[in-house]
Amino acid sequence: MSGLVAGKTREGGRKLDADGVIRVAIVDDQRLFADGLARIIGAQPDMEVVGKAHTGEDGVSLCAEVEPDVVLMDLSMPVMNGVSATRGIRNLLPRTRVLILTVHTDDAHVFQGIKAGAQGYILKDCTPEDLTRAIRTVYAGDTIMAQDIARKMLTTFESIRSNNADIAPHLTERELEVVKALAHGKSNKEIAQILDISEKTVRNHASNIYKKLHIFDRTQAVIYAIRRGLVDIEDLEPR
């Protein structure tokens, strides 16, 4: 069973290039590891490696030059760390997806990486199958993270809200239903069909939910739903 948790985001995915290939850049200071990643990705018929860099600064320069679809980003690198590099890449290329691939599971790294604009966060001990599926997932406009990291994010969000932990935002019953559906990765169209309402109404509910919870996307809605016990993390396996 895979240890990844997937969720929808508000941003739309990108269409494949004319040749049907996802262009991937690798930014990792461990050269042997980066070469291994390149071999795994190069073996996929729908992917190609368009460049490798071994510092965060070189990673930003590389991405500015080749404009990849997805970047595999390490966190601990010389000159510029992966968080700063992620932020720089996302500022330059807002349509480029960043997938953080690291050994770190501590709260600070998790929160900083996601806050910098990464769409995914998986561990370096993942399987090749999990890696390639994660690349396809973030390319399509969705988010993905390892279950261990999802749990760490819960801790981070709890810490951030520690001063008002006893004050739960008031959501209506319908808004709670929408949050639960969002956490299960349902699209607006699917939610509308399930709840027998229009897609416009779903969008309105989602907007109200984001405002009430002070969150910005569906990834954070997943975290909220788990934290409030609306869904179980084991139920969020990608299908």
Protein model, in words:
The chain has 239 residues and is an alpha/beta fold. The chain folds into two domains: 4-156, Rossmann fold (3-Layer(aba) Sandwich); 168-232, Arc Repressor Mutant, subunit A. The chain has ten helices and seven strands. The chain has helices at 31-42, 56-66, 82-92, 107-115, 128-139, 147-160, 173-183, 188-195, 199-213, 218-227; strands spanning 4-8, 22-27, 47-53, 70-73, 97-102, 120-123, 142-146. Strands 1-7-6-5-4-2-3 form a seven-stranded mixed β-sheet, with helices on both faces.
Secondary structure elements and their pairing?
Layout: E1 4-8, E2 22-27, H1 31-42, E3 47-53, H2 56-66, E4 70-73, H3 82-92, E5 97-102, H4 107-115, E6 120-123, H5 128-139, E7 142-146, H6 147-160, H7 173-183, H8 188-195, H9 199-213, H10 218-227
Parallel strand pairs: 2-3, 2-4, 4-5, 5-6, 6-7
Antiparallel strand pairs: 1-7
Task: Give a brief description.
The chain is an alpha/beta fold. Helix content is 47%, strand content 15%.
What is the count of DSSP helices, taking H or I runs of 4+ residues? 10
Distance between the termini: 11 Å
Largest sheet: 7 strands, mixed
Order of helices and strands: EEHEHEHEHEHEHHHHH
Mean pLDDT over the full residue set: 78
Instruction: Name the poorly predicted regions.
Output: 8-16, 160-167
| Second CATH tier, the architecture of the largest domain | 3-Layer(aba) Sandwich
Relevant CATH superfamily of the largest domain = Response regulator
Shape field: elongated
